[in-house]
């Protein structure tokens, strides 16, 4: 844990942890494309993270500790973001897919449902199902 992280709120630590995961998925294929970075920055804006905070996550990922979400809704939100980052460049790299599944288990999803969860999220994103609708469908299962 970095010195600065000692004084941050749990919410901020959780957001940084999430963005570390998003960046890991984006870079799983060996590079961070501009489209992936731009999308992550859009997500950062929605989460009230500055460009400088995201840059620090990129530059010092080892300083960010994993902080799992507390609620099912937060778990699904994070999985949705991870899958959409994987899809944003219109390619599904096997390394990105595997990393999404690893993160699903770290987020607390049971291994037995991880494959279906990721595939359902991919299908919803590809079909253009709004995030709120996709998450409501998944939460109701």
How would you briefly describe this protein structure?
With 141 residues, the chain is mostly helical.
Protein architecture, described:
By secondary structure, the chain is mainly α. It has one domain (9-139): TerB-like. It is built from seven helices and no strands. It has helices spanning 10-27, 34-46, 51-59, 72-87, 94-106, 111-126, 131-139. α4 (72-87) runs antiparallel to α5 (94-106). The longest helix is centred in the N-terminal third of the chain and has 18 residues, at 10-27. The protein starts with 9 loop residues before the first helix and ends with a helix.
| Count of individual beta strands | 0
Query: Span from first to last CA?
Result: 37 Å
Biggest β-sheet, characterized? none
Rg measurement, Å: 14 Å
CATH architectural category: Orthogonal Bundle
The domain count comes to 1
Helix content: 55-70%
Structural class: mainly alpha
Low-confidence stretches: none
What is the element string, with H for helices and E for strands? Answer: HHHHHHH
Predict the CATH topology: TerB-like
The mean pLDDT is 90
| Global shape | globular
What is the CATH class?
A: Mainly Alpha
Give a quick set of tags describing it.
67% helix; single chain; TerB-like; mainly alpha; 141 residues; globular
Secondary-structure map:
Layout: H1 10-27, H2 34-46, H3 51-59, H4 72-87, H5 94-106, H6 111-126, H7 131-139
């Amino acid at each position: 844990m970095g010195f600065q992280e000692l004084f941050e709120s749990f919410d901020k630590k959780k957001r940084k942890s999430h963005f570390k995961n998003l960046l890991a998925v984006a870079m799983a294929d060996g590079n961070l494309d501009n489209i992936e970075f731009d999308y992550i920055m859009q997500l950062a804006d929605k989460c009230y993270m500055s460009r400088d905070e995201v840059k620090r996550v990129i530059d010092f990922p080892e300083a960010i500790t994993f902080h799992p979400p507390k609620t099912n809704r937060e778990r699904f939100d994070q999985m949705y973001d991870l899958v959409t980052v994987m899809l944003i460049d219109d390619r599904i790299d096997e390394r990105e897919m595997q990393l999404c599944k690893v993160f699903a288990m770290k987020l607390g999803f049971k291994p037995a449902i991880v494959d279906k969860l990721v595939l359902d999220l991919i299908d919803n994103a590809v079909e253009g199902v709004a995030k709120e609708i996709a998450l409501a469908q998944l939460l109701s299962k």
